[in-house]
Amino acid sequence: METSEKTNKMHLGRKISRIRELRGMKQEALATELGISQQAISKLEQSEEIEDSTLEKIAVVLGVSSEAIKGYSDEAVFNIISNTFHNTSSDNSTLIASSLNYQPTFNTVEKIVELYERLLQSEREKVELLKGTNNEK
Q1: Dihedral, CA atoms, 59, 63, 69, 74, nearest 10 degrees?
Q2: Which residue, 4, 135, 15, is CA-closest to 73?
Q3: Each residue of 55-85: pLDDT tens digit?
Q4: Residues 116, 136: one domain?
Q5: 126: which of 9, 26, 60, 79 lies 20 to 30 Å off by Cα?
Q6: What 3-state DSSP class applies to 96?
Q7: Domain identity same for 7 and 74
């Protein structure tokens, strides 16, 4: 009976970790938004219980309510995903997404531009290094 009580107990740190991962957010990004270190986030995600005030701050950054974090379960997410896809093939061999309403939480064009700018900056740095090496010879 003791083990069933332990497994049913909320582990808020793990829930925060899963929601953060589903949001595509790294610990560093969450830490920056909260004004704490990445190690503090790691410690929080290992904690079974978290103060309500801290949980509320984390919820705001993750874009969910603290109640959503408390009530989060992987099963619910998997149910939503599985209910989004319907088998419309007569031979039951393919799954086709009907009415899949996927809206990313980030602007995809901005992410592409950001990636391009980082790659461009990296190439510029390489060129400068090569120029410096050439000038030394």
Answers
A1: -150
A2: 15
A3: 999 999 988 888 888 888 877 766 666 665 5
A4: yes
A5: 26
A6: strand
A7: yes
User: How far is it, in rounded angstroms, from Cα 22 to Cα 38?
Assistant: 18
- pLDDT for 91-135, tens place per residue? 444 444 444 455 556 667 787 888 888 889 999 999 988 888 877
Enter the pTM of the model. 0.52
Single-letter residue type at 71: G
Query: Residue 52 burial (CB < 10 Å; 0-12/13-18/19+)?
Result: exposed
CA distances from 37 to 96, 114, 132 (A): 43, 24, 36
Domain range holding 80? Answer: 2-97
With the C-alpha atoms ordered 79, 85, 89, 95, is the resulting torsion angle positive or negative?
Answer: negative
d(CA 26, CA 40): 13
CA dist 30 and 123 (Å) reads 29
Residue 15 sits in the same domain as residue 78:
yes
Give Cα separations from 127 to 95, 130, 132, 134, 135 (angstroms): 48, 5, 9, 10, 12
- pLDDT band for 43, please (50, 70, 90 cuts): very high
